[in-house]
Amino acid sequence: MVHPSGELARFRLSFKRKERRDHRDSISSAVPAKFIRATSVRPQTLNPRWNEKFRLMAYQSLFKIGDWRKENSEIKIRNYLFACGGTTSRRQRINLGRYEPLRYFNNDAYLNRDVIVEKINNVIGMLEMIKYDPYRLACDFRGIINNYPDNCFITSRSVLSKIMNTPFEINQEKRKWVINVKITIKGIKLYYDEDTVISTRSQSFLKHEELLKNYLFTENPQIEYLPDTISLINENFFEINRLDVGNHKLAFTVETPGVISNEVINDFHTLLLSDHVYYELIDATDFTPVMMNYNPIWWSKAKLANAKQCVIGVYNKRNNNIQEIIKFNADKLNDMRAYENTWSPKAAWNFLNQFLSYIKNELAKIPEADRRNTILKLQSFYKDKPFIVCERIKS
């Protein structure tokens, strides 16, 4: 073809897309097209500032939430759909609220900030339910997850301290421990890690026995495993065994120190030498073992104050009963609870030592021949504020 000017016309075919300089320098131009898909967003495609602020891991659905009473929590939703509701007790059936399903797909990164903040707030709200009234809420707290309730996990480093209403000690952050909280119709259970799902229907936990002993135990305790009631707290392993004693439902710890909160002491000689304790269940339907089974470092006076009934005594295996003797009131316990503003794990430990020392001193006043028939009973009452009454009972 000849141009009107007489020269041959030249054709150029360019498939390059002309872009402005500011667009060429954007992050999207640096990412190959094969990494950009409609159903997933890789970290490279996210605005770095946005990613740093929200710390969203699209594949793991892991959120790091800060400024929750100046503490950091990690919440991991392993399923795409999570909804939760709870009741105060099996009798009242009061619905405490049902949270909207939280959906975490790989393309969550496309959601705007307001939607993601709302999702995070929903998760925090669910944990707030546990924190404010842990004793009652734990009695009948249920998780509903895509018809797979056994796969529900909320992983948080400080949820346990919230459950116990005990401050989380930031200095212990270097210990690098993680608590997995499994919500079931029976309550809340804690596990060592999410891959070690402990179930009564399998003995898979026994494979991890040596690992747990090497990692968690300072000695080699002899424990009869009941896998459905295992908890890990602050690198200390706790096991609860359960049995019926007359009209009482008992649960007890083995080869571990304990605290006084709905607990029964098995052997007074053991009590005088150590802090070994047992639990008494007045109403099995209102009891969640793992909620009351924790290290004294994380001892919470709120647990002691909210205890329905606490019995410290002797369980007679031969007669299969608990023997009770002599009554008395002890106002000293209320004095020990007067330091709410200075409460901390260290103060909690001191309080526990004072409390157990007080009980040991009272037991020391009793003739040795009568100690095995002695029981101390702690009860909680509510007026303006909860308080404790300690009694020594004689049957």
Description of the molecule:
With 395 residues, this protein is of the alpha+beta class. The protein has helices at residues 21-24, 48-54, 113-132, 134-137, 159-163, 209-216, 268-273, 301-306, 332-336, 345-364, 368-371; strands at 62-65, 73-76, 83-87, 140-144, 154-156, 179-184, 187-191, 230-233, 236-245, 248-253, 263-264, 278-281, 309-312, 314-316, 321-323, 375-382, 386-393. The chain is elongated and about 125 Å long.
Q: Label the overall shape.
A: elongated
DSSP strand (E) fraction? 15-25%
The count of DSSP E runs of length 2 or more, i.e. the number of strands, is: 17
Biggest sheet, open or closed, and with what strands and sense? 5 strands, antiparallel
* Classification by helices and strands: alpha+beta
Rg, Cα atoms, Å: 28 Å
Helix % is 10-25%
Low-confidence stretches: 22-113, 127-317, 320-356, 378-390
Placed side by side, the strands forming the largest sheet appear as 8-9-10-12-11
The mean pLDDT is 38
Encode the helix/strand succession as letters: HHEEEHHEEHEEHEEEEHEHEEEHHHEE
Distance between the termini: 119 Å
Number of helices: 11
Protein name: RAI1-like domain-containing protein
Domain RAI1-like: 152-378
Q: What's the helix and strand layout?
A:
Elements: H1 21-24, H2 48-54, E1 62-65, E2 73-76, E3 83-87, H3 113-132, H4 134-137, E4 140-144, E5 154-156, H5 159-163, E6 179-184, E7 187-191, H6 209-216, E8 230-233, E9 236-245, E10 248-253, E11 263-264, H7 268-273, E12 278-281, H8 301-306, E13 309-312, E14 314-316, E15 321-323, H9 332-336, H10 345-364, H11 368-371, E16 375-382, E17 386-393
